[in-house]
C-alpha cells in the first residue's frame, strides 16, 4: 500500500469541508481495509473527546480522557487496543504543527503489523491537516467541540486565538483560557517567523464583551505592527496609542510581549504592567526580573523599553494573568504565593499542552471547584535548545 497517504489526501482535498470526516472514513476503509473509523475532537476545556457525528444524530456521547483515548491524546503516539475476537482498535493522534485536535480511531479486523500502523499514522496526519483547514469553512467541528453555549465575549476570544499549542524543533508552546465558555478579556497570541517566536499575553480591563472588544483591538494593533515588520517596542506603542485614542485613558490593557531567538535562547521583553512571568529551571521556580512599565493605553504617546534575559536548554516559562496569580477565593493567601510554584513543579515531566491543563486544574481545585471569579490565562513555553535536545 505505498500510495495510502496519497489516496486519502486526494479524497480529503475533493471532499466538501463539512464532509471531511465521511471522506476520511471511506478512504481509510478502502486503503487500510479498516472496518470503521471515528474522529474525536477535544472540547474547549480539553477534559473530554467528542465524536464528530452527523448533526442529525443527537446521541453523540463524550469519551472521557481515559484509557487508550487518553493515552493516545496525551502521549501523541499510536495506541492499540486488541479485542477478544481478534479485532483491534488503533488510536492515532490528530495534530498539526503541535496543535492537538483530537484522536482518530481506526477499527481493524485483526491486529495490524507495524507497517500498517506507520501508514495509518501518516494518514491521521493528513486527516488532521484537512480538519485544520476545513475548520475555517464550516461550523461542524466547532459544534462538536463546544458542550455548552459560548458567551459572546468567549466567542470573540476563541476566534482571535492563533491556536492552543504549537511546536518547533527548539521549543514547545501551549496556552489555555478559563472559564472556557465565558472568558472575557484575558488572551494570548503568538507567531513564528524566521526562527523568532513572538508571544503576547494580555489581561484586558473590564469584564465580558467590553473586555473582549478591548482585547480584540489591542491584539490586532500588535499584529498590525508585527506584520509590518515592527519589533516589540513598535507593537507595544502602536497598541497603546490605539487603545488610548479610542478610550482616552479610561481603559487599558496589561500586557507582556516576548520575542525568543529560537537558535540562542535569548529573549527580549516588554513588560507593560504585565501578566506574571515565571521560570522553572530544574525544580527551582523564580520570577523573571523585568521592570514593569505602564499598561497599554493609559497615556498618549507612551514609550516602551526592551529588556533581555537568557533561557537555558530545558527552561520552562509560565506566563499567567492576574486571574491565576492573584486568585484568593476564600480570603486566604493568593494562588501565586505558593500554590502556583507547586503546580509548576508538578508539570516537570509533562509537555506544555498537558502542563497548562495541570495548572488550570490546580487553580480550579484552589477555588474548591467553584467557578473562577476572574478570567484566567496560562501560557507555557519550553525552550529545548537550538538542536531540540534539552540538557
Automatic annotation (TrEMBL):
Q: Return the InterPro entries for the record.
A: Bact_Sigma-Reg, GAF-like_dom_sf, PPM-type-like_dom_sf, PPM-type_phosphatase-like_dom
Offer one Pfam family short name for this entry. SpoIIE
Ranges for the PPM-type phosphatase domain?
168-383
| The keyword Lyase is assigned to this record | no
GO MF annotations in UniProt: phosphatase activity
What keywords is this UniProt entry annotated with? Hydrolase
Q: SMART domains under this entry?
A: PP2C_SIG
> Which top-rank group of organisms is this from?
Bacteria
What is the name listed in the Swiss-Prot or TrEMBL entry for this protein? Serine/threonine-protein phosphatase
State the organism named in the record.
Micromonospora craniellae
Taxonomy of the source species: Bacteria, Bacillati, Actinomycetota, Actinomycetes, Micromonosporales
Amino acid at each position: 500500500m505505498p500510495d495510502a497517504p496519497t489516496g486519502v489526501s486526494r479524497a480529503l482535498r475533493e471532499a466538501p469541508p463539512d464532509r471531511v470526516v465521511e471522506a476520511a472514513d471511506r478512504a481509510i476503509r478502502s486503503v487500510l481495509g479498516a472496518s470503521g473509523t471515528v474522529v474525536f475532537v477535544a472540547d474547549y476545556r480539553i477534559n473530554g473527546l467528542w465524536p464528530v457525528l452527523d448533526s442529525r444524530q443527537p446521541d453523540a456521547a463524550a469519551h472521557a480522557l481515559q484509557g487508550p483515548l487518553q493515552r493516545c491524546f496525551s502521549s501523541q503516539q499510536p495506541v492499540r487496543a486488541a479485542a477478544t475476537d481478534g479485532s483491534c482498535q488503533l488510536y492515532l493522534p490528530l495534530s498539526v504543527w503541535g496543535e492537538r485536535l483530537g484522536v482518530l480511531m481506526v477499527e481493524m479486523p485483526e491486529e495490524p503489523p507495524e507497517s500498517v500502523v506507520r501508514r495509518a499514522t501518516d494518514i491521521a496526519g493528513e486527516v488532521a491537516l484537512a480538519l485544520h483547514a476545513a475548520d475555517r469553512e464550516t461550523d461542524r467541528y466547532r459544534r462538536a467541540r463546544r458542550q455548552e453555549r459560548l458567551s459572546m465575549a468567549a466567542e470573540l476570544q476563541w476566534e482571535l486565538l492563533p491556536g492552543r499549542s504549537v511546536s518547533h524543533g527548539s521549543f514547545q508552546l501551549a496556552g489555555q483560557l478559563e472559564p472556557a465558555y465565558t472568558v472575557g478579556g484575558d488572551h494570548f497570541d503568538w507567531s513564528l517567523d524566521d526562527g523568532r517566536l513572538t508571544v503576547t499575553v494580555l489581561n484586558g480591563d473590564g469584564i465580558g464583551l467590553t473586555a473582549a472588544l478591548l482585547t480584540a483591538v489591542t491584539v490586532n494593533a500588535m499584529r498590525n505592527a508585527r506584520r509590518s515588520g515592527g519589533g516589540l517596542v513598535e507593537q507595544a506603542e502602536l497598541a497603546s496609542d490605539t487603545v488610548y485614542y479610542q478610550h482616552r485613558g479610561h481603559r487599558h490593557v496589561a500586557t507582556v510581549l516576548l520575542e525568543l531567538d529560537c537558535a540562542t535562547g535569548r529573549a527580549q521583553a516588554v513588560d507593560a504592567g504585565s501578566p506574571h512571568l515565571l521560570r522553572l529551571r530544574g525544580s527551582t521556580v523564580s520570577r523573571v526580573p523585568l521592570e514593569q512599565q505602564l499598561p497599554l493605553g493609559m497615556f498618549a504617546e507612551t514609550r516602551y523599553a526592551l529588556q533581555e534575559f537568557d533561557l537555558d536548554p530545558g527552561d520552562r516559562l509560565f506566563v499567567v494573568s492576574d486571574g491565576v496569580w492573584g486568585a484568593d477565593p476564600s480570603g486566604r493567601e493568593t494562588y501565586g504565593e505558593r500554590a502556583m510554584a507547586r503546580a509548576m513543579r508538578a508539570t516537570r515531566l509533562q509537555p506544555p499542552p498537558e502542563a497548562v491543563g495541570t495548572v488550570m486544574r490546580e487553580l480550579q481545585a484552589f477555588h474548591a471547584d467553584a467557578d473562577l471569579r476572574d478570567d484566567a490565562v496560562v501560557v507555557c513555553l519550553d525552550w529545548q535548545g537550538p538542536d531540540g535536545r534539552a540538557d
